[in-house]
UniProtKB/TrEMBL annotation:
Necessary for normal cell division and for the maintenance of normal septation. NCBIfam families: GTPase_YsxC. It holds the Pfam family MMR_HSR1. GO terms for molecular function: GTP binding; metal ion binding. It comes from the Bacteria. This is Probable GTP-binding protein EngB. Its cofactor is Mg(2+). The gene is engB. Residues 22-194 form the EngB-type G domain.
Length: 194
């Protein structure tokens, strides 16, 4: 997809604050610090449109971005970071669940996992929950540049068997090398049926 224009629209916590447009929307989820914001920057060819940080817990609100005045990309706050306060953790789950359950224009979720970790309970639970909500979910193993090609494929197989998916249903990605960027765009196009 040729990126002509990207706009930050707004941050939101609850449905009343979500933007009122009805463009197709794709959201990015995953553990804190996994690289959600970096992945969005890579997709839209911007270095720092979406704020990233080496400190986990950088994104704490639901952030809406509009691409080419046609496609909405949503950066969700990360989960599972032990050092954020209990209060923030207690806010996270209802914030993301409400978003997924109520957002009409949401067509799919992209779930990122660090390629160096085996999928955890959070990810398995999240995928099962999305399936019961009939929400399509694309799985990404990110920071692929941290492993050799052989190890990348080994982790791909482990994830495919953990989620009971075909290898082709999981994308190897790196924000550093941009490996996997085009595949993710192709999958987004499939999800929104353009
Ligand atoms: P939260 O907003 O805290 O939930 O984090 P996030 O998932 O948005 O992660 P973010 O994009 O801010 O990246 C976290 C750290 O990982 C930053 O230091 C990034 O530079 C680094 N990072 C992200 N993607 C990659 C990647 O593909 N390869 C490498 N080597 N580092 C990455
Ligand atoms: Mg972030």
């Amino acid at each position: 997809m040729k990126i002509r224009a990207v706009e930050f629209i707004k941050s939101a916590v609850k449905p009343a604050h979500y933007p009122e447009y009805d463009f197709p929307e794709i959201a990015f989820a995953g553990r804190s610090n996994v690289g959600k914001s970096s992945l969005i920057n890579t997709l839209i060819n911007r270095k720092d449109m979406v704020k990233t940080s080496s400190r986990p817990g950088c994104t704490q609100l639901i952030n809406f971005f509009l691409v080419n005045e046609a496609l909405s990309l949503v950066d969700l706050p990360g989960y599972g970071y032990a050092k954020v306060s209990k209060k923030i953790r207690a806010q996270w789950q209802p914030m993301v669940e409400t978003y997924v359950e109520t957002r009409k224009n949401l067509l799919g979720l992209i779930l990122l996992m660090d390629i160096r970790r085996d999928p955890g309970k959070e990810e398995l639970d999240m995928v099962r929950w999305l399936e019961t909500n009939q929400m399509p979910c694309l799985l990404i193993l990110t920071k692929a540049d941290k492993l050799s090609k052989t190890k990348q494929l080994k982790q791909l197989d482990a994830a495919a068997s953990a989620f009971n998916r075909d290898r082709n249903g999981i994308v190897l990605f790196s924000a550093k090398t941009r490996q996997g960027r085009q595949t993710i765009w192709d999958e987004i196009h499939n999800l929104i049926d353009w």
